[in-house]
Amino acid sequence: MKKIFAFFLITILLTACGEECYNPPLPIVFEFVDSNGENLITNGTLTTYTINEENQAGVQLSKTDDDKVLLENVGAYNGTKNYNFFSNIKNFDFSIESSEFKGGCDGYQINKLTFTGIAIDVIDSNGYYKIVLQ
Question: What is the DSSP code (8-state) at residue 17?
Fold first, then answer.
């Protein structure tokens, strides 16, 4: 009986200590510029900005050292969510479509980001978006 108990205990410990892996979605970074390409945060034009999820929960934002805005913890879901960007210059809406990652690890990937309700120029480069606000 002790041998059976020891066998089960070792089996549980070995399976519980298995290596887990998770692939978070790639980060999304916004750079807000004017029509001349000048960064609006750097020049002091864009002073306040927030992003809310469709359920009115705020999205955590971080400003990078080069005055870009990093959207944190977005895209870790299966489906599409709508977001609202509010600032002292201009407001706009966008949506993020994500899906489960199909690989060796669990996780999510961002498939598409769509801007709606406003005519703005957006340059997409693998999660980095240069947004011209005028």
Answer: T
Quick: pLDDT tens for 58-88: 999 999 999 999 998 898 899 999 999 999 9
0.90 exceeded by the pTM? no
| Residue 59 contacts residue 52 (beta carbons within 8 Å) | yes
**What is the C-alpha separation between 23 and 107, in angstroms, rounded?**
4
DSSP letter, residue 131: E
CB atoms closer than 10 angstroms to residue 30 = 19
> What is the rounded CA–CA span in Å between residue 133 and residue 34?
6
Residue 126 CB-half CA count within 13 A? 0
Reduce the DSSP state of residue 62 to 3 states and report it: strand
Output the six-digit token pair for 33.
């510029």
d(CA 120, CA 24): 28
